[in-house]
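Page 47, continued from p. 46.
Same chain as before, 474 aa.
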Amino acid sequence: MSVIFFIMIQRAVNLPMKIVFKPIQKFIQQEKSAGLILAINVLLAFIWANLSVGIDYEDFFHQKFGFFFNGKLYFNYDLHHWINDGLMSIFFFVVGLELKREFVAGELSQPKKALVPFFAAIGGMIVPAIIYILLNPSGDVHKGWGIPMATDIAFALAVMSLLGDKIPLSLKIFLTALAIVDDLGAVLVIALFYSSDISTTNLLLGLGFIIFMYSANKAGIRNLWFYALFGIFGGWVAFMLSGVHATIAGVLAAFTIPADVRIDETLFGQKINKLLLQFNKLDADNSIPTLTNEQLHVLDMTKKVTNDAIPPLQRLELLLHPLVSYLILPIFALSNSGVNLQSMSWDLISQNNVCIGIFLGLLLGKTIGVSLFSYLAVTLKLGSLSPGLNMKHIFGVGLLSSIGFTMSLFVANLAFEVDIYKVESKIGIFSASLLGGLLGYLYLSQFPFTSVPKNDKLSELSDKEVDNTHSVAP
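Result:
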């Protein structure tokens, strides 16, 4: 009876667990989920910032935390600073991993395919900056020229995914490649123009750690804990103290992570088949739920062989991507999106063009820059679009790229020290991102993708085989 009772309890517990966690897993697997969670946190931040009861929004994120050592206080920063310089370093680390992967084996590794999204990204950075500078030619507000240069890939892909089958994989790849180059440009802008009071000693120390990690990569060290130890307590801390923004350490550290494998695909298949045969030959009593020591040994070897076949870079990217998308970026959005409308001085806002400069820079600058530079790249035969894509689709991508959000908010916090300028930046970013996303969705829904005509080779395949050919991601 006790056994039956135990089984009943176990099933009773597992049933609600499945009911709760299966929908969560399915939600996380959808690419639009990250954008939806970000949007919810933006809304929560706005509501919190305008509440007159409970914990004050600004006071909460300005609480200071530090570390006492030997009677002295170190790294005494407020919570907002820890989020933007600490947690966001992990975000930039993942950005660096994506950049390296794209340069090594992705869209950016093939010059002919990469040139059009590359030029599109360059245009999408230059034109918005020019528009902002024309409206804010001097003074402290001039520093915000880097804000409208960025694209938020999570939001942009989330909007594009809402269109379903109307959007081809090739257009999503184009937008992703554009956003990755855009991220690289934003990292360079932050490093060169939004760092101050540089400590040469700490900067050289940080670079020394990065060079050491890169040398370890070339020496064959693949232990991820090794790179975590020297990346965090070496590179990140040194950059934090150098005056160069700490998130740059995340990008540089990512480029030191090994992207090669110990065993290639052919050898991996041979070893796995051999281990599988060994496992099947081992005697086992199926009535016993545990495994024998020999079976455990074979499984451990299988795990080792599998790890040797996966590049550490991709293992880290897969491990950290959910953490960044569903925890770090939502926390960043919550801590940076609050706008208290009651405390705003509309007269002061009307005296400068920060808000309108960011709004027009993102909405018009991004759309014009992406479309114009893509057109020039194709016309001058510097690159070519994927089959089936045309400039109508690229114009829609330009509209979606005006969704700046995460990176734009990040740069705004670096560009301005005056609170009213930060508030104006948020209004401009939110307005342009919302309108750009809406217009991009409506526009692309009017121009469905035209399938590429089958060539002679493909015509010999069945319709099902053709569908499978086009559904494989590169």
